[in-house]
Amino acid sequence: MAWSILESWGVQLLQFLTFLVIARYVDATMLGIVAMALLVGQWFQMIILSGISASLVSKGTADADLDDTAFWISAAAGALLLIATFLLADWVERTAAHQGLGMVLRWLSVANFLGALNVVPQAWLTRALLMRPLATRSTISTLVGGIVGIALAVAGYGVMALVAQNLAVAVIGTIILWAACPMRPRLRFSREKARDVLFYGRHVGVTGAANFFNANADIMVIGLALGGAATGVYTVGKRALLAANLMLARALSRVALPVFSQLKGDPPRLAKAFLKIVSATSSITTPAFVGLAIVSDEFIFLLFGPRWAAAADVMRYLSLFGALQAIGIYNQSLMLAMGKPQWQTWLAGIYALVNIVTFFFAVEYGMAAVAAAFTARAYILYPLSVWPVVVLLPLGWRDYWKALRPSVVASVVMAVFLWGLRFALAGHAPISMLLSTVIAGAAVYMIVLGLVGRTIVIDMFHFARAGGKRVSSTS
Predict the structure, then answer these.
(1) How far is it, in rounded angstroms, from Cα 306 to Cα 298?
(2) Residue 322, CA distances (Å) to 18, 150, 327 in order
(3) Cα 439 to Cα 434: distance, rounded to the nearest angstrom
(4) Residue-wise pLDDT tens digits, 430-451
């Protein structure tokens, strides 16, 4: 878990800094075109590759025949996507009416194919809880990709800077991953194992399809209704949220599935672990996302510049969604670990349907309305996501709320205090407002959390101390 946290923080900081620099050298339309092209890779990852990966990780133990079979399935899927993208890229460009989209799609299809080749070795390391090589791979590849992207953006290559950045990350990451993983695929294919992969993966794939629309329907609707420039602005607001969410939540959620899978035979112990990890995550992510919502104007102005000011409202609403998303990830991991992927499929389908319908009505009122609708839907329907937890584990709704209560109460008190502080500081320079809000918010939150959730603070201290020693001993 410690290595996973280091990876998430390092990679997201590098990615966000790279995006920050490149955004100053390319216009909104270019960002919008690349954002739409990247949806193909996200679709492939969430619908096809995630199902294959989950079937391997949830196994809990090594199975060479399963790994070999899964590799050839993923490689074949990647090759088919590569060919289809090259053949259909021009048609997609004409249909979407975004000049240059076809070229970007073709280049990024190479990265998608490499992603297919990497699924099994990455799942192999994750299943074994070997997070250090994964952290090394992600950090180095992101750093190299960032250097390439920034250099080309400064030199005036525009959209190709973004394309080259993604290709560099994919190529370097593939080399490092295969060098670190001892598993090598053999020329073996088991029909029985293939049925296992496809049977388990079909529910994860359908869930991934629904989750894909949940996560990206806003960009798709804005791209079709408002154009590439609006998509670029919306992407800036959403990118800040994505970086924060991956930094603060993905590290723990990445460990959740293999850990939950290993504990599923002991429901009381699993319930205790689930509540602890949800409580720990919420204690970090809830104040962070609430704080991002409060400082969104200064954040966008100082980091991206005044020409991206319209992204602040998008970031404000989506940050409030991020606070919920960070803990909701564990509900899905639990259903997968307990062999109930079809439950998540139904939930994701409901969310996707509501999102798409809501966005088509909201887009008429602009980007901020879409972001607000996205967040409102998440909060209204969130109890549906918690229901499987109380069914699968020996715990109740009160236990779940008790795990979240300290961080929620402390975050609300922090927000009220900061609103009063910012009203008193109205008219000050953006940098002064940002620093004052961050420092005062952190102090107020920690004081209140210490009063209402002392156990959480002690647990986090012990975790940080143990994790630091573990990382130091394996460095």
Answers:
(1) 10
(2) 22, 28, 9
(3) 9
(4) 899 999 999 999 999 999 998 8
Kindly state the helix (H) or strand (E) to which residue 14 belongs, with its residue range: helix 2-22
Distance (Å) of CA 94 to CA 34, 163, 260, 445:
16, 20, 46, 51
Query: Environment class of residue 456 by beta-carbon count within 10 Å: exposed (0-12), middle (13-18) or buried (19+)?
Result: buried
| pLDDT-derived band at 411, boundaries 50, 70, 90 | very high
Contacts by 21-24, CB closer than 8 A, 24 or more apart: 21/150, 21/153, 22/149, 22/150, 22/153, 22/161, 22/162, 22/165, 23/236, 23/304, 23/308, 24/304, 24/305
The single residue listed with the structure tokens 């930094």 is 247
- Show the DSSP H helices in 128-266 as ranges: 131-154, 159-180, 191-226, 228-245, 251-263
pTM over 0.90: no
Q: What is the pLDDT of residues 385-394, one digit of tens each?
A: 999 999 999 9
The rounded distance, in Å, linking the Cα atoms of 421 and 437 is 8
Q: Which residue has the tokens 């973004």?
A: 162
Instruction: List Cβ neighbours of 109 (8 Å cut-off, separation of 6 or more).
Output: 40, 81, 82, 85, 86, 89
What mean pLDDT is predicted for residues 5-28?
A: 74
